[in-house]
Amino acid sequence: MVREAADRVAASLTMLSGIDVRVFDVSAVDLGSQTREAASFLGQKLTDPHDAIPCAVRFSVGSVEHTIHINAGDGFCEVARDLATRLADEVSMDTWGQPFPPCPGHSHPRQLDRRGTALVWQCPCDETCTPVLLVDCAKEGGRR
Q: What domain of life (predicted)?
């Protein structure tokens, strides 16, 4: 499920930016003792939801690698949203604020927005800009 969501994110960002975005690795992350040690150091109790599945997704954007950490235990739409927004933010930071994905005719990036049951890349200030579908959550249902 995570790989499919990551592939959809990569395809939508490639289409919007003209930059080759690919997924080249999806792996579970073993947080193990480091998480317990951090909670102990901070004097906090460790809360571990039963459905939390730490996961790392490695993307290449052009020639630059980005690793995005998510909870693979969330539903399909949440995973797609988290991957898309985090990757877009990382790429923008790495390119010193260049808009990613670019918004045609504007100096800001497109933003991920909810339109009915769909997640779409949308211009944040121009409703006439055609939204680009990332995923239709109604079709995906609560898939995990």
A: Bacteria
Instruction: Answer for the pair 80, 74: CB distance below 8 angstroms, yes or no.
Output: no
Domain presence at residue 33: yes
The token pair that represents 49 in the structure block? 């939801």
Model confidence at 1: pLDDT above 80: yes
User: 25 in a domain, yes or no?
Assistant: yes
Pairing type for strands 64-71 and 54-61 reads antiparallel
pLDDT at 46: 56
Number of folded domains that form the chain: 1
Buried residues in 44-64 as b, exposed as e (16+ CB within 10 A): eeeeeeeeeeebebebbbeee
Q: Could you list the residue range(s) of the whole structural domain that residue 28 is in?
A: 2-101
